Amino acid sequence: MSTYGTPGGPTVLDPASLPVDDNVNAYTFCVELKGSQWFLQKGKMIAYYGSIDFNGVGHGRLDRLVRTSFHSPLHASDWVVAEGSGKMLLADRAFDVNSYDLEDGNLTIRSGNLLAFQPTLALKQSIVPGFLTLIGTGKFVAASNGPVVFMEPPIRVDPQALVGWADCPSPCHHYDHGYMTGLMGGLRALTGLGGASGEEHQFEFVGAGTVLLQSSETLMAEQATGAVPPDAGVPGGGGSHTGPSQPAGVPRLPGQLGDLQRRFGL
Amino acid sequence: MAFREINSKMVEATVMPGQKLFSQRGAMLAYKGEVSFTPNMAGGQGGIMSMIGRRVANEDTPLMSVEGSGTVLFGHGGHHVQVIHLAGDTLCVEADRLLAFEGTLQQGTMFLGSQGGVMGMVRGQVSGQGLFTTTLKGHGAVAVMAHGGVFEIPITPQRPVHVDPQAYVAHHGDVRNKLSTALGWRDMVGRGSGEAFQLELSGNGAVYVQASEEKL
């Protein structure tokens, strides 16, 4: 907003006047490289000054770097390492971009929202599918639809509005059972009449920490976080699971037809 | 105040026992405390007749009622949100622009033909309102969505306001609106300025305009 109506037209930036590791505007972030390295997701660099090399992750020279700060080996092809000296502009489809500092901390973020991070941070796949965890000290850049709002738990969050969380030990699902069960709930589930409120399922956070929200329910395009090893007991790993034959991943809610069928012995 | 703007795209509503909020279904982003969301089959206030009225008028938006005690964050589709406080006057707004409103407001449906007859209906077609629009009357706050930022233009009897029908969001107060046309031979041969239709609002009140000509 503040750049509107500046006397003399739009501000023209050059390498000297570009901010160092800060936002140029709400949608663009400038990173300064001085022989240092940054990890960035493919296609998020929009311009750069100076001499910067972009190398795919996983090539021999960067092997050591990958070993220390990149722990999603199957996801490596989506990331590049920027190396050299100069200034680099990052942006993502006109979404709001912000940088976050971690100090010996941890933060879990939706994979599509992460743009770039310093190699002093270690990137790991979260146990929660579709999320990535950053651990250590350093700076990272993330995009969101609308400015990010920080909230303290206990809080329940719409699944689509969740960007990430820091230090929260317990992300879990919360279902509004009062809404979904009972005669009306069953009728609604059966017929679709009356509709869902759209809010019968949230993510619940309790304990100490911070929850990051975006101001809209429009998701960023999902980024593959890479497959996890297909072992038993690994969420999303597709390992053998015991118990009744239910399609994995689709929770059966009370009030759905399946329950009625069982009740009537059909 | 029931609504607090957190940023341009998000509002925080405080819910207290005995106070009811209505919000668009699925617009809740997060909440604290014990809050329950119930889908409102009637699509708002009033009895079964109001519901039928809204269905017929195509002004039925999926609404839910929000009750309990706590705070709720609302936002939807990355649209900008504008909170409008009403003190006894009537707000005219399209139903699908309503993000949330307080239960103290009376919801109704208005036939655009009742304001200016056939021209009112034409105006509704041009501004994308259709033949009907939703009215909210009373004391309370409304959160309205718009594409791009919203600004408020006051209307005084001496100074009528002309608005592009596509950028029109809502208006309140004692306002008469009419469609003013500036059609000339250029429009007929396809060389028009693209601004042939304007909404002229006169009277006492305010009109809300969005910084975009895109509909929701």
From TrEMBL, chain A:
Gene3D superfamilies given for it?
Answer: Mitochondrial biogenesis AIM24
Q: Where is this region: Disordered?
A: 226-258
Q: Which Pfam families match?
A: AIM24 (PF01987)
Q: Which InterPro entries match?
A: AIM24, AIM24_sf, Trp_RNA-bd_attenuator-like_dom
State the protein's name. Answer: AIM24 family protein
Q: Which organism is it from?
A: Streptomyces chartreusis
